[in-house]
Amino acid sequence: MESRPPLPPFTLETATKKVQAAEDAWNTRDPVRVSLAYTPDTEWRNRADFVHGREEVVQFLTRKWEREHDYRLKKTLWAFMDNRIAVRFEYEWHDAAGQWFRSHGNENWEFNEQGLMQKRYASINDQPIAESDRKFRWDRA
């Protein structure tokens, strides 16, 4: 059976590691790699989109990163308990026309006993910003 440590129940240390691992994976912009942190039957709500299963996760993330160019993400632990973690996040990206955005919001995560995320609920808002107002300027791999 697949396992993705750290495993629940979470402590401050393990929840923080889980959040950092998610941030690192999402910043690769590799839909397949990201999908492997989720159960095969994962359920997502991302804005108004409902995603079911890893295959749909890969499709969703592929579409996302085709339109969100130069994506850079920062996640911060907000709260945790047992097998659940809440995070705050911000990410920056630009569209095909060059308009920059800062997207920010919250995610609620629920994990199975093997440490795979089975539920992800994301509320996200996009704020147009000037390129000069960007905060996330690190080199991308």
Describe the protein in words.
26% of the residues lie in helices and 44% in strands. It has helices spanning 12-28, 31-35, 54-67, and strands at 38-46, 49-52, 69-81, 84-94, 100-111, 117-129. The radius of gyration is 15 Å and the shape is globular. 20% of the residues are buried.
Name the features.
141 residues, alpha+beta, 6-stranded mixed sheet, 3 helices, 26% helix, globular
The gist of it:
By secondary structure, the protein is an alpha+beta fold. 26% of the residues lie in helices and 44% in strands.
Average pLDDT figure: 97
Shape: globular
Query: How far is the N terminus from the C terminus?
Result: 31 Å
The structural class is alpha+beta
Largest sheet at a glance? Answer: 6 strands, mixed
Radius of gyration: 15 Å
Weakly predicted, low-confidence segments = none
The secondary-structure element order is: HHEEHEEEE
How many beta-strand runs?
6
Number of helices: 3
**Strands ordered across the widest β-sheet:** 2-1-6-5-4-3
What order do the helices and strands come in, and which of them pair?
Layout: H1 12-28, H2 31-35, E1 38-46, E2 49-52, H3 54-67, E3 69-81, E4 84-94, E5 100-111, E6 117-129
Parallel strand pairs: 1-6
Antiparallel strand pairs: 1-2, 3-4, 4-5, 5-6
